[in-house]
Amino acid sequence: MQADRFVHDHMPPATEWPVFVNMDDRISGSDAFNLVEQLLGGAMQAAWADRPLFRSESDTLTYREALALVNQRAHVLTQTFGLQPGNRVLIRGGNSIGCALAWLAVVKAGLVAVATMPLLRAKELGDILAVSQPVLALCDAALLDELLLAQAQHTALTQIVSFNAAAHAQSFESLSATLPTGNTPVFTQADDMAVLAFTSGTTGPPKAACHSHLNIWSACHAWPRHVLQARSDDIVMGTPPLAFTFGLGGLLLFPMVAGASVFFPQSPLNAERMVGLMAESGCTVCYSAPTFYLQMAPFVQHTPLPKLRLCVSAGEALPDATRDLWRTHTGIELLDGIGATEMFHIFISSPAWAFKSGSLGKVVPGYEACVMDAHGNELPRGQAGQLAVRGPTGCRYLSDKRQANYVQWGWNFPGDTVSQDEDGYFFYHARSDDMIVSAGYNISGPEVEGALLSHPAIAECAVIGKPDQSRGMVVQAFCVLSSGHAASADMVKSLQDHVKQQLAPYKYPRDMVFVDSLPRTPTGKLQRFKLRPSFSSQGSLMHTVLCPPDWLPPKGYANGIMAKGQQIFVGGQIGWNAQQQFESDDFIEQTAQALRNVMAVLACAGASPQHMVRMTWYITDRQLYVSNLKALGGVYRDTIGKHFPAMTCVVVNGLIEPRALVEIEVTAVMPDAL
């Protein structure tokens, strides 16, 4: 058991955890168990013990050699520095053999790995230090500067050890060189924490997702075994950083489960160089984001990849055009999937041979997933709603009240609006929040705004995601300049460079617009929705007609019209089903159906009951309405919940459909317009 209980003590209470579905009944949470011991130690009894695990342009390490180096580095942590199981260790480095060995040594020693993106700046690193409170940091020698700046503001971090610096006497390599290579004891139980994985792209401070040794071990036997199906002769390459769980799983842990080999290219890495190295190394499995596959496709025409057999795409929505282009140039169907840092890795995906056009795939064996409404009720197949998932992994934030938003009724809610067809395939509709997803990176608009506002030339600014054909979205900034500063190309470059110095460079605004003022409500709140492409330069409003999946087209009127980012108008809904058939002539049952129809239209726009601001009831019989008020209240609460917008009841002589006894109309307003 970990002696340092910091992470355990700062997780949410068990009543706020999701339901965990154990994939291996032979392992209980209190059993002595260590993830790296299972992966590397177990490899010593496998056929691949003396086959390459890590490769680069200059080095190759077998599984046996890697285990010896990991054991030496674990001894440095526990003996030289006296770290105790459960202590947090920050790891800062790009994808390299040195970084992989550092991560494995930390977890093998019973410590908690806090991996960070190499592009992060001092402020961002400082936020992570404040949350995770590491006692030591392992940092690539080439990336020390920003970490030292962060350390100056967070003095609790007293020790930084560099790696990838074998010539330096105090480097990780030098300190471990003469230490024993023999196996170290297991200091952990299955339910002890192995990783604090920091999310990106949401507003506010970073969130740390806690994952135990058993959680990650189970994830290693879910998607990799049932969908990916890697082999021991595979050579794996990819672009996602090891600091992201997508990269950690795909480029380190999952290959080890299969006995495969990982090739880490030296940075910098562009699409042309990546394709060349894939050809030279004999790469068979590739992990990347759709944007990078799009960039690599032209180079594959000139540099064939005959050994490539599996290509995994994740991190952002996969456009059909990218899928088609990659298939045309390689003959390979991209393996798509949806995952989350909170869930560690992919939980919805299907093998390429089971691909269904336009879908994300099916739920990965070991997990359960469904589509729910705002009250935790599972929706019928074909109806859009919130994705809910549970399985051997799940969200447990460290010291964060946002736990209650992600986990409800024992399910994890990743924040995606989806639908599911009769065959079990899930189809992506949209993100339920307002993040900017650019080339696979999640970017928080308010965070970029904060960086821009620290520049003396900026008086006000607003940041949104602008649709982009190649990157999915780009960061677009609308800026009001301070007195004495003028808009110019030099000003654009100055502001972009300033953001790059404050934040990870991929977060900088690629498109900048200078304006005289920003749209605000009478109370002064910024109205970002008015800056989005749904508004033309003349101020006319674009709109989207809403029709839930599998509904018949409306008869001469819209089921709902959404003014994107502003208001949603749910046209009058009556008590018939999706096929425009009345199942009952009972007033209460028709009302319940009409309310369900309202919810279905709202879900199409990614809206929930709390977004409703007005509801109008049209009835044909006042006495029938009054005598059933109590029953109507029960039906309303069962369907809508306890949110009550302003309501009006109107008695009419008749409705368009003769059998209809009630019609309900709703106006809803999305958050940015409030």
Give the helices and strands, then pairings.
Blueprint: H1 6-9, H2 35-43, E1 52-55, E2 60-62, H3 63-80, E3 88-92, H4 97-108, E4 112-116, H5 122-132, E5 136-140, H6 144-153, E6 160-163, H7 172-176, E7 193-198, E8 208-212, H8 213-219, H9 223-228, E9 235-238, H10 245-258, E10 261-263, H11 271-281, E11 285-288, H12 290-302, E12 310-313, H13 320-330, E13 335-339, E14 346-349, E15 368-372, E16 385-390, H14 403-406, E17 407-408, E18 411-412, E19 416-420, E20 426-431, E21 436-438, E22 441-443, H15 445-453, E23 458-468, E24 472-481, H16 489-502, E25 511-514, E26 544-546, E27 560-562, E28 567-574, H17 587-604, E29 612-619, H18 622-627, H19 629-639, E30 646-651, E31 662-669
Parallel strand pairs: 1-10, 3-4, 3-5, 5-6, 9-10, 9-11, 11-12, 12-13, 24-25, 29-30
Antiparallel strand pairs: 1-2, 7-8, 13-14, 15-16, 16-19, 17-18, 19-20, 21-22, 23-24, 26-27, 27-28, 28-31, 29-31
Helix pairs in contact: 3-4, 5-6, 11-12, 12-13, 17-19
Structural features:
single chain; 674 residues; alpha/beta; GMP Synthetase, Chain A, domain 3; 60s Ribosomal Protein L30, Chain: A; 8-stranded mixed beta sheet; 6-stranded mixed beta sheet; 19 helices
Task: Describe the protein's architecture and organization.
- With 674 residues, the chain is an alpha/beta fold.
- Among the domains are: 436-518, 2-Layer Sandwich (GMP Synthetase, Chain A, domain 3), CATH 3.30.300.30; 544-673, 2-Layer Sandwich (60s Ribosomal Protein L30, Chain: A).
- Helices cover 29% and strands 23% of the residues.
- The chain has an 8-stranded mixed β-sheet with strand order 2-1-10-9-11-12-13-14.
- Helix 5 packs across helix 6 (144-153).
- The two termini are 49 Å apart.
- The model is unreliable at 534-542 (pLDDT under 50).
